[in-house]
Amino acid sequence: MDVMNDTSADRRARAVAALAAKPDGIVEAIAGEANVTPAEILEILPDGSAVIAGKDHFLDIWNELATWGVVLFLVHTEDVVAEIDGSLPLGSEGHGWFNIHGDSPIGGHIKKDNCASITFVDRAFHGRRSCSIWFMNAKGAAMFKIFVKRDEARELIGEQLAKFEALRARYQGA
Q: What is d(CA 83, CA 145) in angstroms, rounded to the nearest whole number?
């Protein structure tokens, strides 16, 4: 592929074709197949499937998510997909990092300034509805994702789903 002549129309056409081939697949895999970023795949999802909030809403969104109870915190790189169940601790900023520590298996340090946007994603994943919030970097990849949890019957937990839908609604059309 000639990257020098790679137009945005070419990228979009590849993204559309790859998404059409696997509409409920893993976004990162679809993006890799099309040689585009995950953000470019999210941008072409059907209306309402991806609602984008500005990076300036990071703290408001994080603090709301910290009230949801146990969520699925996911980090997806080309080498590993780490899935951690836990409550999000409230964070504090210091030394250029957003620091999260508390009584949860989720802890560490986030380079908050690398967050370019936050995307609320509501789409089918392997045939089931999946709702998540993606903290995106400027390279078009997810820094990490927070998923609405599922119950024992593999259904989305109703209380968290309602909170997801209400939070997403705050940023829809913004």
A: 10
In angstroms, what is the C-alpha Rg of the chain? 16
- pLDDT value of position 4: 53
Q: Assess whether pLDDT exceeds 80 at residue 69.
A: yes
CATH number at residue 122: 3.40.1570.10
- 91-138 confidence digits (pLDDT tens): 999 998 999 998 899 999 999 999 999 999 999 998 899 999 999 999
Backbone angles phi, psi at 141, to 5 degrees: -115, 160
Q: What DSSP character marks residue 39?
A: H
Domain that holds residue 37: 1-44
Residue with tokens 């937990």: 157
Half-sphere exposure of 80 (CA within 13 A, CB side): 6
Same-domain check for residues 86 and 64: yes
The span from the CA of 68 to the CA of 140, in Å, is 26
79 and 129, same domain (yes or no): yes
Query: Quick one: what percent of the chain has pLDDT higher than 70?
Result: 97
- In this structure, the answer to whether residues 23 and 100 fall within a common structural domain is no
116 three-state secondary structure? strand
Strand partners, 74: 83, 145
